[in-house]
Structures are given as C-alpha cells and as structure tokens.
Amino acid sequence: MIAPLRTLALTCAVAVALTACKKPEQQTPPPPEVGVIEAKADTLPLQRELVGRLSPYRSADVRARVPGVLLKRVYQEGQDVKQGQVLFLIDPAPLQAALNASQAELASAQATYANAKAAAARARSLAPNQFVSKSDLDAAEATERTAAAAVQQAQASLANAKINLGYAQVTSPIDGRAGKQQVTEGALVGQGDITLLTTVDQLDPLFVNFSMSSDELTQLRRAQAAGAVSLSGDGKSTVQVKLSDGTMYDQPGTLDYSSAVVDPSTGAVTLRAVLPNPQQILLPGAFVSFQAVLGERKNAFLVPLQALQRDTTGGFVMVVGKDGKVVRKNVVTEGQQGSNWLVTSGIEPGDQVIVAGVQKVKEGSPASAKPWTPTAANGPGAAPAGAAPAAGAAPAAGAAPAAGTAPADAAADPATKPSDGAPAAEPTKQ
Prior knowledge:
single chain; alpha+beta; six-stranded mixed beta sheet; 430 residues; six-stranded antiparallel beta barrel; 21 strands; disordered C terminus; Elongation Factor Tu (Ef-tu), domain 3; elongated; conserved putative lor/sdh protein from methanococcus maripaludis s2 fold
C-alpha cells in the first residue's frame, strides 16, 4: 500500500517540476527609439534681439530770424519740402525801410569820404612847399581814414539789411517733411526771441537708437580677445527690424555709432544704426524690435528648441553615447536663432543629441538612436508636439524629467509606459 502512494507522490513531484520548467522566462524590452542629430560646430552669426526707438536722420527747427508780423504760410502741413523752399512769409515793409536807410547812410558816407580824400590829397601836394603845416596834413589824412571806415561800416549795415530782408521769406533748411504750423498768421514773431514756426524731419533714412548693457559688451570683447567671437565694426554690423505684424522689414540697417561712455544712470552703452526708409513706412518716435548681427560666434552649435531641457541647475541636453547609453550634458546657450538654440559650450562635435523622445529615456539607460528630421511627423524621430520649452522657463509637464527622477520601470513594460504628455510617478519606496 505504501509503495503505490510513494510512486504517486514521486509522479506528482516530477509533474510539478516539469510544469515549472515550462514557465516562459520574462523578456527584457528593447531600448526606446529616440530621434537624434549629430552636433556640428560652425561659425554662426552673433545675433541679439533688441528694442530701439526710431528718430529722424535730421531734424531742423524752422524759426523766425527777424522780428515782424507773420503774413502767410505757403506750404501744406505734412508735405515733403525741399531745401530752400519758402515756408512762411513775414511782413517785409519794415525790413525794406531799414534797407533803404542803410543805402542812404552808405551814400552819405561815400560822399564824405570823397571830400576827405580830395582834401587829404590837396594837403599832401602842398606840404612839400610848406604851404600847409604838418599838423594840418595829419588832420586831413586822419579825416580821410575816418571817412573810409565810415564807408565800410555803412556797407556792412547795408549787407545786414539785405540779409534781414531775405529772412522775411522763411525757407526750409533741409529736405524732409514739414510738420504742423506752430504760429498763426498775424502773430508777431521774432520779438525778443527766435520764434519756432515748424519743424522739418528727414525720414529717409532713419536712426535706430538702442542700448546694450556694459557688462554684455565687456563679455563680448573678452570673448573676442580669446578668439571665440569676431565683432564687426561700425558700418558692418547689420540690424533687421521686425514690424508690428511679425514680418521682417525688407530694408536692413547698419550700425554707424557706438558710444565710448557708459550712462551712469542705466549702466548701458548707447548705440545707433542707420535704417533706409524709402517708402517712409516707418515713422520717427516709434519703438521697434529688431535683430542685430554684431559679428560671428566661432565653434558654436545649433540645437533644436525641443532638445534643450531646463531644471534648477540650468539648461541641459540628453546625448546617446558611443556605448548606446544616455548621458546628460549641461550646456550654455547664447540666444535663440529661429527654431534653434545657439549653444556655446557643453557639447562636443559628433555628439548624438536627443531631439525627439526625451520623455522615454533617463540618464544611464540604453536608447536606440535614429536620425531626426523636422519633417517626420509621427515617426520614431519626430518631435513631439509642444516639446519645445519656453526660453528661460522650467520644463512643463510634457518635458523630460531631470536625470535620476524618471521612474525605474518606465521602460520595463510597454503597457505601463507613460505617455508623452506626462511621465509616470516614481513608485513609493517602502
């Protein structure tokens, strides 16, 4: 009886062992696919996004230079005028009378000079025979010199009267657009002060006045001394103005002035660029945003916006190493160029920077690198929608978590993989 039971028990044990051996082993999931680009160092434009204010290339105040009554305005307000064009008329009658008086004074002085000249000549002819005394001769010659000076004075007064009469026609000093009339007809102008009548502004070209931090300029010059940056001189640096509708103005400007003194109230350096305005689309006084190309940045990298992540320590990218594992690299950026960040340090030529799929990986884990192209909409190398972080902001819910914070089993089971929109929570440690 015992033997059959022992045999039955042995059979059951063998069956259980065979069943355990046939249990399928747990398979290791493949590494996640990510879209990568190869980092390539290049010489790139040194750009800055700035804000400036437009001002006229030349601005001339038109003023009454002689006293009188304003008779008439002979231009249309807001009209383009030429240099020398008559803008206002001042009553010329008093000025004409002053001119006539100066002419009469000149005639009198010339007659006096003629008589004095003849008397002096007569005294000089009689002096050798001692028909006139030495003192009389000296007096005659002194009278002659005084009369000659009076003639010159009368000529100067006449010239001044002619100039004042010409000022009765107020002309434009430059080519430009005449502004609003400041004084109405019939007003007494130029009485005790130089009355402003209007202003003429030259609108083509325009000045773009802006400023940069002195610290930033110092850093740029220091980088130039180190060979990392090549700054353009005045007349070579370009600016591209952005219009209010977001489009770029089709006329690039050039930097023409840079102050050598720091404003003590702002700590900034004043700069100025000349901007062509042939269509007169832009108007003085307006604030504009523009992109200034100050030179060239050497050995820099362009990294797509969605590749750069940020945390409390700063910006970083995830790189697939030669061993196929993901490595975090902290980077330094210097502004945005289009849809890319300009990275100046932190990565090396040949690095496989992860652009798409950063939510799928964590530092130290393996990843399958595939070339990334912007046109790949939904493939392994496609950029996830909304993956690009805002400049200077912390990553949103859809951004890659910081190194070491990804869940341990994020890639262990495809069925429990977190979505691109939000990573799964890390399991609670007991």
